[in-house]
Amino acid sequence: MPDVGSKCRVCKQPAIIDLPRHNANFCAEHFLELCRRQVVKAIDQFDMLTKDDRILVAVSGGKDSLAVWDMLLELGYHADGLYIGLGIGDYSDISGDYARAFAAARGLKLIEIKLRDEYGYDIPTAARATRRVPCSACGLSKRHLFDKAALDGGYTVLVTGHNLDDEAAVLLGNTLRWEIGYLARQLPVLPARDGLPKKVKPLVRLTERETAAWCVVRGIDYLVDECPMAAGNRHLGHKETLNAIEAQSPGSKAAFYLNFLERMAPLLAAHAEQERDALQTCNQCGAPSGGELCAFCRLVVTSSQHEPVPVELIMRGGRNRR
Question: Whose C-alpha in 78, 214, 235, 236 is 20 to 30 A from the C-alpha of 208?
């Protein structure tokens, strides 16, 4: 929050938020204007969307996905929502409630997919059955189902709520391990290709603090709690590291990620193209795959045959024991 008596840089009215990376404070009206401007800049710079696109927004009930859905609607885009019930105990039940409430209050279409009902497993069970960390099983499931829902529904673009903090943290992790394949694909836009929809991230110029403030100012209720299965995730540790750097040098996160896109990503484009050309087609679902059976279909086969595992058991650290 800004210091008492701080004024908005634009109109000199009382400020509601301080943004050190912009070296400025803003009132509610001009803070929202700043957020819209940053999203428009990302959309235009990376050729993300047009008003003719059929847009599907992946929503979780959290601040980022609800904020990006709200921003796109404000900017005049038509967008439906997609919610995936991951079966993570009360957390999933509550997150679904927030997504449904947002859609219902605005008369929006929300597509729902429940892992347990449609694929015979949930994330706690998948973590135990495959001996994957929960976030790995979750990410794999969501990516596949996002793509499938967009293609099945005839949508031209899939939108996710990844923000600047998310992208900078992923970039840090991939850089620490020099994961060239992941670095080559870490772009704000992934173009459509056979079996994959176009995927875009309009929030890459906004931090999670800014998306949270957007929701507060706009009166959007969202799930505040982190996923209970994310404890110990390296991604969260990378965020903490970057936050410490940002506190000492405001603007560092934006410089780190946006300069990567400008200076390094073009050098990795050929590597990304080679990886895409090497993909096969999954014999089971038809999705792009590195082998005859894609990772998602292998996950379904293993997890759906396993006895359901409650989330509390995984949280007690038993995910790697059958």
Answer: 78
